[in-house]
Write a structure and sequence with these properties.
TIM Barrel; 2 domains; elongated; binds 3-methyl-2-oxobutanoic acid; binds zinc ion
């Protein structure tokens, strides 16, 4: 069965950059955009040009710098926004304007003090106006997660009729459950005239920790594009994380989906974004957190050292991480300690290992993690063979030889 491609729309530089205190300058944005292009994203949402002169300039410079990826600029359904977005995209080889309006009762009533009919008129006008500047116009129905499906379908049908090429269904407040969001996408696929001519996109927020699950449910029900950010950053609790959704697709071939992402660049891209934004990735973050491929309990370490797959379903090399790490803590066992000593050039026989292990536990109970320096101190304290070592030549499985100390 032929696989279907899911397009990756990266909004790290727009929705992601809305994180308080993480604003980027133009140079940093261009560096990240170039990395995103290398990573293989299909669309880079470069910014919201009307929002500030720096954002306008950043979008413009990204357009000049990026060679083949679609560059997208955000606007509200407001003439001036759309005009400025169009101007900022002037140098893009493949420009896209992303325009839209709130469609939920809450937005219509309280944000716009308007009526559903007037909202449809504004949506149509925004798309038609954006078409004066670019051919590729993406329409977002803000707060689609809380919009009644029948009305949402009506809005979508109207904007498609007037030239929208991509329809974005944001769960702006992270409100939906995966089944509910998937059903919404399926409903639109089955009830909107013209929907098969356009790309249907997910855009999920993580207020209840469901952004990735909802995006997955969206593509399993017919969406063809996912909007996401590196490290899952974004407003409030963030957006769907690019690394999570891409690896879910890669790991589950039965979904019959694929992306163009070069997954081996995921870790370096995550580091770049984290450094530029001065925002650390949480240690237990899936795929890119420092602990994502670290093992510290004795049972897990023993298993991983025998065969990596016992406690890892993802190969760290697939996301650009050299290998799994064995962290020494008070929960570690002899196998892990012997492994780490071997890496330092010491082979411990059973009696030596027993003695070293008892000293190790005294250190480990006082410390969070035992380092190589402390491992050497432990050896000195154990005073094995009265400090004398017996050197032998050891050849590993790859045929490389080195001298190791047998104790
Ligand atoms: O979350 C959202 O609704 C958005 C739109 C502006 C696309 O970010
Ligand atoms: Zn958003």
């Amino acid at each position: 069965m032929e696989k279907n491609r899911i397009q990756i729309f990266d909004t790290t530089l727009r929705d992601g950059e809305q994180v308080p205190g993480c604003q980027l300058n133009t140079k940093e944005k261009v560096i990240i955009a170039n990395k995103l292009e290398l990573l293989g994203v299909d669309v880079i949402e470069a910014g919201f040009p009307i929002s500030s002169p720096v954002d306008y300039l950043s979008v413009q410079e990204i357009c000049k710098s990026v060679s083949q990826t679609i560059v997208c600029a955000l606007s509200r359904a407001v003439e001036k926004d759309i005009e400025i977005a169009g101007l900022a995209l002037k140098y893009a080889k493949r420009p896209r304007i992303h325009t839209g309006i709130g469609t939920s009762n809450c937005h219509i009533r309280y944000k716009f003090n308007s009526t559903p009919e007037k909202i449809i008129e504004r949506a149509i006008y925004a798309v038609k106006y954006a078409k004066r500047f670019v051919e590729d116009v993406e329409f977002y129905a803000e707060d689609a997660g809380r919009t009644e499906n029948e009305f949402l379908a009506k809005v979508c049908e109207n904007v498609i009729k007037n030239g929208a090429t991509v329809i974005n269904i944001p769960d702006t407040t992270g409100y939906c459950l995966p089944e509910e969001y998937g059903n919404k996408i399926r409903f639109l696929k089955e009830n909107v005239k013209g929907i098969h001519k356009v790309i249907l996109s997910t855009h999920c927020h993580n207020d209840l920790g469901l952004a990735t699950a909802n995006s997955l449910s969206g593509i399993m029900n017919g969406a063809e594009q996912i909007e996401c950010t590196i490290n899952g950053i974004g407003e409030r609790a963030g957006n769907t994380s690019l690394e999570e959704i891409v690896m879910i697709i890669k790991q589950n071939s039965h979904l019959n989906l694929f992306t163009n992402i070069n997954t081996k660049l995921i870790y370096s891209t995550s580091n770049l974004v984290s450094e530029c934004m001065g925002m650390k990735v949480q240690a237990n973050k899936a795929i890119v957190g420092i602990n994502a491929f670290s093992h510290s309990s004795g049972i897990h370490q023993d298993g991983v050292l025998k065969k990596r797959e016992t406690y890892e379903s993802i190969n760290p090399e697939d996301v650009g991480i050299n290998k799994s790490s064995i962290i020494l803590t008070a929960r570690s066992g002899r196998a892990a300690i012997a492994y780490r000593y071997k890496k330092l050039g010491y082979f411990l026989n059973k009696n030596s290992l027993d003695l070293v292990y008892s000293i190790f536990l005294q250190y480990a109970d006082e410390k969070k993690e035992i380092t190589d320096i402390e491992l050497k101190a432990i050896l000195e304290k154990a005073n094995l063979n009265n400090g004398k070592t017996n050197q032998v030549l050891h050849t590993n499985a790859n045929g490389n030889s080195r001298r190791i100390n047998v104790l």
